[in-house]
Amino acid sequence: MKKTLLALLVGMLALTGKAQHSYLSAPGVAVFYPANYDASAHAPSPIFEQELYPIGEVPADWKIRPVYSQTEKEQVVTLHVGEDVDLYGGGEVWGSLRRNGKTIEFWNMDNPYYSVDNGTHLYQSHPWIMGLRPDGSAFGIIADNTWRGKMTSDKDVVFTSLGPAFRVVVIEKESPKALMQALVALTGNMELPPMWALGYQQCRFSYYPDTRVKEIADTLRYHQIPSDVIWMDIHYMDKFKIFTFDPKGFSNPKELNDYLHAKNFKSVYMIDPGIKVEKGFWLDDEGTAKDYWVRKANGEHYIGKVWPGPCHFPDFTRPEVRRWWSTLYVPFMAQGVDGVWNDMNEPAIGDGPEVSMPKDNIHRGGEGMAEGPHLRFHNVYGFNMVRASRDGLLLANPNKRPFVLSRSNFLGGHRYAATWTGDNKSSWEQFEASVPMSLTLGLSGQPFNGPDIGGFVGSTNAHLLAHWTALGVYYPFVRNHTTENSVAQEPWAFDKQTLDICRTAINRRYRLMPYIYTLFEEASVNGMPVMRPLFMLDAKNPAFRTEEKAFMLGNDLYIIPRWAPEVALPEGNWNILKLEDQDDGVQPYLAQRPGSIIPMANLYQNTTELCTDSLTLLVNPDAEGKAVGTLYEDARDGFEYRDGHFARYELKAETFNKKLNVTIRKIEGKDEAKPRVLRVGYVTDQKITYSPWTAGETVLMKVVKDKTDMLVLKGLKFVEPEKNE
Question: Would you say 491 and 502 are in contact if contact means Cβ atoms under 8 Å apart?
Fold first, then answer.
């Protein structure tokens, strides 16, 4: 049926001749086609979960309309958005949160510490821009184009492409929240990840041999640093050949993974796309026999150099290749592997032009996708790879939620993989830059993201690691990772003070896990970022639109770095959570929104041990003495929640006669309400007053109204950071 509708649509477009064609595909969503649109050069779109079909005409008063033109080399689309608009988005980009006056190139590239072309194109491409008007209304623009191109964002948003003319989608909504919901309705939902993927994760290039991996696991537990995942970089492989294990250093991967599992760790292993050219290597022999490789323009199999030396590269545009690739994970995951890390998948090729394939290489497509050059498919090479990898993890473990991390991706790729911001540098500049980078990814439909904590390239120092860890635990993805030949940067690597700071920060992450997991469930349903810019609170406040050092974790926690004294401050009783007896001067301030309730767990060492039978409910009442919150719970892995096997709870607080009454009540889901022991943490200015532990669904405690209520955040102490590189 869909193919028939698509054929009719293409035919309709052909009949329009030189006329531009447009339609509404959903309320507030307009699709615009150029007169010379060629569907075979673009369809099927990787961006949209389903093809876009007409439901009506674009209103005559539609605000933003594209103007199509072309030069000798480029297709050009110009959209006038106005001078009083603040622009955001563009995916994985270097620079400020506000994107006015910026140019981004859409050409995925292995770009260590963002050094090439001033970071104007990195590892991923997201041809998307969103704008906020003074009245708080929002719009978004999608260029449905995978070919190499650029986007300039100013009073005119201009997309260019080296490929054929492409369609543009414009979304108009009343708020940034409604815009994010509209974006996810078009691009699809992120699958709810397993809870273990939200914990602290330790990595290095590389931990070798397997005894070193065990030592890292033992040391994390010895120092009582909550943690869930240890990562294996490429040295676990036999001579860097993917889907193999080094016979000396990783001779028994099943035993290693069993060891980690016994200590409640999960393992994630790297799989790159390059397959070593070697007769007798079963994987290369099989792919060659089946003709599964990307071809050169002359029809020969393309060979490029990566870690193993000369490599073939699977043509992931072909459905049969993706199916084959997915089957490779079955015996690999059977060794006890829990998650997969797809790296070098821009693709990065050491001896290729611009560190990648020649642009005239041929990808053969299939299932409605026409054959085309690498110039068209380069930006979605990683996208198609993680698509196949995710299928492989489901094939291997159909009852477990797959976790795939990818360096390269494309708009819409959140359906298949989480991401990190690539090979950053151990520097204060790139530490600060990680905030707007992660915020921008969230605003571009990729909620599960984060940087390498401590920095990857170069050597960090104790001061930088302490501050980066202290702030990094509030990113959606939390991983400490560094390169080979750098100094060690595990939390214990420097001194006791640094260790204590890192452990305190990670403890906070785990105590807040019920709140964080609830945020991820929200992101999986409606596309709201887990890590949000301040303007999500109030899109009309101009001071909030440029804030890029402090950020929101969900809707109820404002994260203020200790090195950022000039951040925008919301009004009202945004009280600071004092979670520790002593202030180390590094932990960010956590300001809780008035009228909110935040569920918090007791301290534990991993998500497997997490027990929410005992919960602390942090309550910061509003001016009327009321507060509300939400708690979502399920099995933390598997897919039973899709059939309603979860429990959603309403948290509610009311004040009367100097008493605070707090209740937790199940409002949705098939799972039985959990019997609990509760206590209330009544939040005032840098003070939490706790009630006794009480069995049941209700806690009643006496309160004294805080004299600082309804005052703007004040009296915060900041530090002058050491920014020596």
Answer: yes
- Whether 60 and 171 map to the same domain: the answer is yes
| Residues 113, 226 share a domain | no
514 and 579, same domain (yes or no): no
Residue with tokens 């690498």: 374
Structural domain contains residue 560: yes
* Listed residue (577, 561, 344) closest to 470, CA to CA: 561
Chain-centre distance of CA 268, in angstroms? Answer: 17
Q: State pLDDT tens for residues 24-35.
A: 999 999 999 999
Q: What is the pLDDT of residues 277-326, one digit of tens each?
A: 999 999 999 999 999 999 999 999 999 999 999 999 999 999 999 999 99
Residues 610-639 as b or e (16 or more Cβ within 10 Å = b): bebeebbbbbbbbeebbbebbbbbbebbeb
Largest Cα–Cα distance of the chain, in whole Å? 83
Among residues 346, 521, 547, 633, the one annotated as catalytic is: 346
DSSP per-residue letters across 498-563: HHHHHHHHHHHHHHTHHHHHHHHHHHHHH---SEE-GGGT-TT-GGGGG--SSEEETTTEEEE-TT
* Per-residue DSSP letter, 413: G
| Mean per-residue pLDDT over the chain, rounded | 95
561 shares a domain with 509: no
Choose, from 210, 423, 452, 490, the residue flagged as catalytic. 423
Gyration radius of the chain over CA positions: 26
**C-beta of residue 196 within 8 angstroms of C-beta of residue 607:** yes
Q: Is residue 285 part of a domain?
A: no
92, 172, 233, 343: the active-site residue? 343
Any catalytic annotation for residue 84? Answer: no
Peptide bond into 599 cis (omega under 30): no
Fill in the DSSP letter of residue 659: E
* Within-domain flag for 360: no
Assess if residue 280 is contained within a domain: no
Tokens representing 555 are 């809707």
- For residue range 550-571, list pLDDT tens digits in order: 999 999 999 999 999 999 999 8
Domain count, the chain: 3
670 and 579, same structural domain? Answer: yes
Q: In the annotation, is 343 catalytic?
A: yes
The reported pTM is: 0.95
Is 423 assigned a catalytic role? yes
Q: Are both 180 and 201 inside the same structural domain?
A: no
Closest C-alpha among 555, 553, 557, 522 to residue 537 = 555
One DSSP character per residue, 267-332 reads EEEEE-S-EE--TT-HHHHHHHHTT-B-B-TTSSBP-EEETTEEEE-B-TTSHHHHHHHHHHHHHH
